[in-house]
Design a protein that fits this description.
- The protein is α+β, with helices and mostly antiparallel strands.
- It has one domain.
- It is built from four helices and six strands; from the N terminus they run ββββββαααα.
- The strands form two sheets. The protein has a four-stranded antiparallel beta sheet, with helices on one face.
- Helix 1 packs parallel to helix 3.
- The longest helix has 19 residues.
């Protein structure tokens, strides 16, 4: 199965593939979607926050990544490590931190900064 959201493709055999313009292709294997990163606000999903710190990761690309990322997590829910914190808390915190980072890099209206609600 393959599903595409903007520059992001979910492939059940590979994971997530990103094709940012003028940058190398990004491969995020299915084992990587469960990685967690500690922040000052608490644990978050690593990749949505880490990518938000990169200049090419615009709010539009972030929105498409989030759709692909959460689709992948839902698809592979049965493989979620049992020791991960509550998913709803992680999802909410991740999107809050990601939005803060993006708003520091991309000034605009709230609508333009909306990542995913």
């Amino acid at each position: 199965m393959m599903v595409q959201y903007g520059i992001w493709i979910f492939d059940e055999k590979v994971g997530l593939i990103g094709r940012p313009e003028n940058f190398p292709e990004i491969f995020l294997g299915t084992d990587k979607i469960w990685e967690i990163k500690e922040t000052r606000m608490g644990p978050v999903w690593k990749w949505p926050v880490q990518f938000a710190e990169l200049g090419w990761f615009t709010p539009r690309i972030a929105d498409n990544f989030n759709k692909a990322f959460f689709f992948a997590q839902k698809y592979f829910e049965g493989f979620r490590p049992k020791d991960t914190p509550e998913k709803l808390d992680l999802d909410t915190r991740t999107l809050q931190v990601q939005t803060e980072i993006l708003s520091d890099h991309f000034r605009g209206t709230d609508e333009e900064l909306s990542v995913r609600k």
